[in-house]
């Protein structure tokens, strides 16, 4: 099918928002939270699904790019179930055992972070969503998803001999790890009375953060929310995804500092639901992030899909923070998140946004060497940093740049961190201000 360029004399989504009669759809799209460039999308969470068998590109009526964006924003499909194939390939280097950023506070009581029960510490919660969902940052995974409105959702990570499930049913949020037979229970967040949920219904309940970002819809809507006049937007043909006809929406950054080559979103021609999301790096090669439905059904899932009772003998832990405990609240008041990093600032905007934060004790080294910093006097730790990244210096001092196929990070010797889907030069420029 012929390439379809945006109308009204612009190739950016900014023109779409100015088109008469289309402003409501544009405004609705911008309500979705904007990630820190595409770095937040790539780190949280979710990656690639090899595309599905196709019976040939469908012949669909032409549609302008801004109209397709509005179609996604106005999509109100609240019921669905299906299977999503996901893969992430950031090209991350593997870190030697015992190495971490920060002063070692994140390690378990057993002395080795993340290795067995000892590494998690006594009484650790193996089913905790925060720990489990980090696995989606690399490799290929199969997810089963289901939703019935804003207060019933289910996401399951299917493994060879086990399954990990997150179930939201009303005000309860359950996480179950069949491999360890452990259950994590917490209260689902409540939206403000006058807030609107993702579909625009007043008085709805928020989707828990743990259930976000795990589908083509979440990835697409986060990306479209960041679209502005720094983005070239086109419709590039059609596709068949999970047996459904779809348009191909293509977004490309205009900013030279971005490391993103293009984002391609397959949008269901009938209901506007994103069916496939692909993020390609500017450097070429295979996609860094892609998520695609292999099966999808937009009818209402059965009620028992969202019912959960802890299996006999399962170890159940409660999230005390969800009940008003001091656990994470005090840290947030101090400007620290769960990893012990100081509050994050966002520099720049859109595709060239850079996250800036600080590690409390500088750049940590091997276990026990608290406060040691990189550089020639850091011994083995300095050599390790030199091996993983490239040494740089500037008006900010000195540090190391660590690169992946998409995201780059600058870690200064005094513990400041700058990370984004931008070039090394852009990070150094931000650190020098």
Task: Set down the secondary structure blueprint.
Layout: H1 13-18, H2 23-30, H3 39-44, H4 65-74, E1 79-88, H5 116-120, H6 129-132, E2 139-148, E3 152-158, E4 163-169, E5 172-177, E6 182-187, H7 216-225, E7 231-241, E8 244-253, E9 260-268, E10 274-281, E11 289-297, E12 315-318, H8 329-333, E13 345-347, E14 354-358, H9 380-388, E15 390-394, E16 397-403, E17 408-412, E18 416-420, H10 424-432
Parallel strand pairs: 6-12
Antiparallel strand pairs: 1-2, 1-11, 2-3, 3-4, 4-5, 5-6, 7-8, 8-9, 9-10, 10-11, 13-14, 14-18, 15-16, 16-17, 17-18
Radius of gyration of CA atoms, rounded to a whole number: 22 Å
Mean pLDDT: 74
What is the succession of H and E elements?
A: HHHHEHHEEEEEHEEEEEEHEEHEEEEH
The top-level CATH class of the largest domain is: Mainly Beta
Our count of helices gives 10
What is the CATH homology-level superfamily of the largest domain? Lipoprotein localisation LolA/LolB/LppX
Distance N to C terminus: 47 Å
User: What global shape is seen?
Assistant: globular
Helix content: 10-25%
**Strand order within the widest beta sheet:** 7-8-9-10-11-1-2-3-4-5-6-12
* Poorly predicted regions: 1-55, 95-124, 191-204, 322-340, 364-377
Structural class: alpha+beta
What's the story with the biggest beta sheet?
12 strands, mixed
CATH architecture type of the largest domain: Clam
* β-sheet strand percentage: 25-35%
The number of domains: 2
- The total count of strands amounts to 18
CATH fold group of the largest domain: outer membrane lipoprotein receptor (LolB), chain A
């Amino acid at each position: 099918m012929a390439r379809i360029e945006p109308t009204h004399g612009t190739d950016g989504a900014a023109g779409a928002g100015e088109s008469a009669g289309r402003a409501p759809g544009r405004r609705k799209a911008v309500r979705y939270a904007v990630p820190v460039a595409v770095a937040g999308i790539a780190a949280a969470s979710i990656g690639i699904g090899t595309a599905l068998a196709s019976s040939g590109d469908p012949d669909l009526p032409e549609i302008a790019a801004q109209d397709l964006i509005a179609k996604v924003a106005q999509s109100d499909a609240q019921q669905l179930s299906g299977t999503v194939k996901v893969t992430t390939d950031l090209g991350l280097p593997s870190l030697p055992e015992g190495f971490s950023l920060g002063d070692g506070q994140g390690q378990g009581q057993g002395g080795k972070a993340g290795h067995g029960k000892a590494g998690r510490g006594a009484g650790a919660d193996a089913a905790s969503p925060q720990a489990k969902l980090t696995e989606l940052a690399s490799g290929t995974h199969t997810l089963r998803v289901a939703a019935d409105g804003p207060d019933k959702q289910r996401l399951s990570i299917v493994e060879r001999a086990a399954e990990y499930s997150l179930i939201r049913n009303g005000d309860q949020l359950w996480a179950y790890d069949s491999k360890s037979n452990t259950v994590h229970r917490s209260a689902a967040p409540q939206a403000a009375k006058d807030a609107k949920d993702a579909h625009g219904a007043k008085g709805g309940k928020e989707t828990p953060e743990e259930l976000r970002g795990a589908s083509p819809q979440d990835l697409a809507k986060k990306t479209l929310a960041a679209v502005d006049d720094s983005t070239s937007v086109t419709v590039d043909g059609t596709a068949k995804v999970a047996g459904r006809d779809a348009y191909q929406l293509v977004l490309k950054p205009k900013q030279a500092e971005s490391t993103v080559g293009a984002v391609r979103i397959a949008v269901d021609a009938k209901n506007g639901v994103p069916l496939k999301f692909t993020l390609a790096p500017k450097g070429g090669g295979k996609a860094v992030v892609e998520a695609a439905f292999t099966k999808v059904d937009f009818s209402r899932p059965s009620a028992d899909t969202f019912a959960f009772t802890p299996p006999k003998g399962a170890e159940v832990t409660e999230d005390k923070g969800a009940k008003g405990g001091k656990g994470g609240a005090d840290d947030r008041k101090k400007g620290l998140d769960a990893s012990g990093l100081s509050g994050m600032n966002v520099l720049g905007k859109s595709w060239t946004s850079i996250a800036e934060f600080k590690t409390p004790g500088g750049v940590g080294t091997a276990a026990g060497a608290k406060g040691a910093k990189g550089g020639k006097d850091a011994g083995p730790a300095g050599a390790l940093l030199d091996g993983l990244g490239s040494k740089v210096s500037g008006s900010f001092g000195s540090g190391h740049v660590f690169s992946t196929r998409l995201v780059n990070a600058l870690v200064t010797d005094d513990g400041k961190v700058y990370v984004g889907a931008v070039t090394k030069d852009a990070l150094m420029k931000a650190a020098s201000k």
